[in-house]
Amino acid sequence: MALLDWMSDVAGPVVRGDGVLLRPPRAGDYAAWSTLRDGSRDYLQPWEPAWPEDDLTKAAFRRRLSIYAREMELGHAWPFFVLVDGGKTLAGAVTLSNVRRGVAETGTLGYWIGQPHSGQGVATAAVQAVVGYAFDKLKLHRLEAACLPTNHGSRRVLEKSGFRNEGRARAYLKINGEWADHLLFGLVEDER
């Protein structure tokens, strides 16, 4: 099974930050990922789109890996699992998606941290590491992110990472089954 996991692993960059290691998800991460997501369901659900019934299944995880591999191959997204304890423990994920080149040179940042790791600076360290990767390695010019106005923790992560609040978008994303307003944040490379 380990050989099959190795053969199906998503290859990609490894990014290090303050106490975090970021790397693309692998097939062998399924158990840790599903356990962390399931144990953090009540904590995460108010801030995320509704989870499909099969969301935590191995088949759904394999579909995610396939999508991640295709998006990375096209240069449209860079998904990372956030690991702590010297790279041994899965704490969450951060994704740079919707990467647009040409006149935009921009991408959208999203992230989640499992409840056992919240409030410990893990999200901030992960976001800051991806910001450095996006600007220094991918040569993007601008990053964007959004969060619910009531998600004070996520807002603080963005502010500590240099993002500026640029306004409010009405009914921006469908969160937990309802269209929800979001605060929009941006960070331009020369302002970090």
UniProtKB/TrEMBL annotation:
The keyword Lipid metabolism does not apply. GO terms for molecular function: protein-N-terminal-alanine acetyltransferase activity. Residues 20-190 form the N-acetyltransferase domain. GO terms for cellular component: cytoplasm. InterPro entries: Acyl_CoA_acyltransferase (IPR016181), GNAT_dom (IPR000182), N-acetyltransferase (IPR051531). PROSITE patterns: GNAT. It comes from Brevundimonas intermedia. Belongs to the acetyltransferase family. RimJ subfamily. The keyword Lipid metabolism does not apply. This is N-acetyltransferase. Keywords: Acyltransferase, Transferase.
